[in-house]
Amino acid sequence: MVRSIILFLLPISCVALSSIAIPNGNSREAAISNNNAAATTDLPTDTARPWRVALNFGRESLTPFWNSWGKSGARLPIVVPCDFCSTNLILPQCDTVSYTDLDGAETKAISGGDWSVDKEKHILKFSLTLPEQIEKRDIVLQANSQLTMEGIIYSEVELQELNQAFIDARAEEWKAAEVLDKIQKIRDAPKTWNEEKGVWEKVYYNEPLSSLASKNLNVFRKAQERKRRDALRPSPKDLSLNSGNFPGFDCKVFLGATNGIIRDDKSGMVVGSWTAEPITVTSENTKR
After folding, report:
1. In this structure, are residues 124 and 154 in contact, taking their beta carbons and an 8 Å threshold?
2. Which of 58, 142, 197, 280 has its CA 20 to 30 A from that of 242?
3. Regarding predicted confidence, which is higher, 258 or 158?
């Protein structure tokens, strides 16, 4: 009886098992190939380096004093995540920007522009366009305003070289100053007991006047070189907190807004300042 039941259920189980889709190596490879093809299609033809550009509109020290623009002291901050492309284009990652006005949240359109770098002078320039008028109190940016941002750019290698040159110049200054310190210590040495005369005597170091003047001049020259080297270095507070990739550079760079300005190309007036930080995508950013 049991044997008859088993024989009866065997065809049913075979049919049930045959209905289950069993993945094979060929189908998996085909799926991976399709995904890779789709990813390759979505990739841009040029290299894009993402940066978070923070625009801060308002009256600046370079804004003409006779112009009443922004005299209330109001500020209008707008954050624009952008891609700096190797084709010298800068493209906002979104075609709109948002900010808060007295009436609440506002959303306006924004479009990209181009960028340029003068590596010898460490100057970065890039432009963005506002197709719609943006207004907050007495801060008014007319429709189709083209904005040009200017700041500084330094690669990590350049900063290391500048810092090392400053350290070397400072070491040379200290070395020259030690020679004068040694002479001064001998002059200021305590009195010694003279057994023959039975008195305390002070030992004087008779440095020739010409030699002393030459050593002081050497210290002055080394100090001036140290100051010159220091002036060539940008201040850390004027650079981005982190370094990021940028087209045309073999290493990461720091962007800075030392005297960084936003200029309205129509009026030629300075209408704000800006800063930038690199956008980094890591496994931590993608965790949910």
Report:
1. no
2. 58
3. 158
Q: Are 108 and 136 in contact (CB under 8 A)?
A: no
Per-residue tokens: 127 = 């432009």
pLDDT value of position 240: 93
Q: CA torsion sign, 56 to 57 to 62 to 65? A: negative
Sign of the dihedral defined by the CA atoms of residues 223, 229, 235, 241, in that order: negative
Q: Give the dihedral of Cα atoms 196, 197, 198, 199; nearest 10 deg.
A: -130
Specify whether the CB–CB gap between 114 and 102 falls below 8 A.
Answer: no
Cα–Cα distance measured from residue 112 to residue 152, given in angstroms and rounded to the nearest whole number: 20
Q: How many CB atoms lie within 10 A of CB 77?
A: 12
**Cα gap 177→180, rounded to integer Å:** 5
Reply yes or no on whether the pLDDT at 180 is more than 50: yes
State the residue for tokens 């305003």.
145
DSSP annotation of 142 reads -
Whole-angstrom distance, CA of residue 155 vs CA of residue 249: 7
Q: Would you state the pLDDT for residue 194?
A: 82
Q: 3-state SS of the chain: helix, strand, coil percent to 5?
A: 35, 35, 30
Q: What does the pLDDT look like over 34-75, one tens digit per residue?
A: 433 333 334 343 567 899 999 999 998 888 888 888 888 889
- Choose between 62 and 218: higher pLDDT: 218
3-state SS class at 31: helix
Is the Cβ–Cβ distance between 151 and 274 less than 8 Å? yes
- Residue 259 pLDDT grade (very low, low, confident, very high; cuts 50, 70, 90): low
- Overall residue count recorded for the chain in this entry: 288
Strand-pair partners of 261: 150
Residues in contact with 108: Cβ distance below 8 Å, sequence separation at least 6, in sequence order: 96, 97, 98, 99, 130, 132, 134
Q: What is the pLDDT of residue 282?
A: 55
